[in-house]
Amino acid sequence: MRPLAKWAVGFEYLPGHQIPQTFSNHADAAHILSANLGKYCSYCERYDPGIQIDHVVPVTQKHTPSNAWDNLLYACSTCNRFKWHAEISEELMFLPHKSNTAYLFVYFADGTIIVNPEITDDITKAKAEKLLKVTGLDQIFIELEDTPKEARDSRDKDRRKAWKIANDHLKEYESGKESYNINGLVNFAKQRGSFSVWFTVFQAHSEVRKALIEGFKGTNDTCFDPQNGYNPMPI
Predict the structure, then answer these.
(1) What is the largest CA-CA distance in the chain?
(2) Which DSSP symbol is given to 93?
(3) Interstrand relation of 17-18 and 12-14 (parallel, antiparallel or unpaired)
(4) pLDDT at 61
(5) Over the stretch 57-80, which tens digit does the pLDDT of each residue have?
(6) Cα–Cα distance between 229 and 170 in angstroms, integer?
(7) Below-50 pLDDT ranges, the chain
(8) In DSSP terms, which residues pair with 75 in a beta bridge?
(9) CB distance 218 to 4 below 8 Å
(10) Are 43 and 96 in contact (CB under 8 A)?
């Protein structure tokens, strides 16, 4: 899961315009979130021009900070639906703008996401598992004929598709590395999202990983080790 470098309250995102601590209407934060993080779901990483603003701690939860800047991210409708009634706090789970979520999870070609097996600390593991469960990213969705449209979940299917596309580009890259345009590859990936899939598929090529980190705006580059193939830094 892409770790996010979210701008701080007071950051001057435009000349004479600073990020307020809170917004009277959460929709007013949309243009700032887009400029900071791009129109990607903060959880499943899908690119979505119609992305929704997510209250990290849901407004249904007591004592929510509601429209505070620190409580606003982008989320797709599916991730938003899964976490709508969840009990969320930093004590219970990791959050992509608060932790190195790149280290927490491992992605596979079949669309599954699991907690990094290298994590042995029980508390760390539990907080990572909670994030997957709250967003429903621990599931592989099986759609039946009578599944209501609003209950469908294509996120694992999207990851499988992204993996295949990324793997095709990997083969092209490795067959003609000298002439391959890395910037073109990154721009192609940015139009589709699924940062972690591309990052995993190109794990043997640190120059591409570096370009992906720099190309997907709002990615927290301090979470990756440039001396070790840009592998995520352990928590």
Answers:
(1) 56
(2) S
(3) antiparallel
(4) 73
(5) 988 776 667 899 999 999 999 999
(6) 16
(7) 144
(8) 52
(9) yes
(10) yes
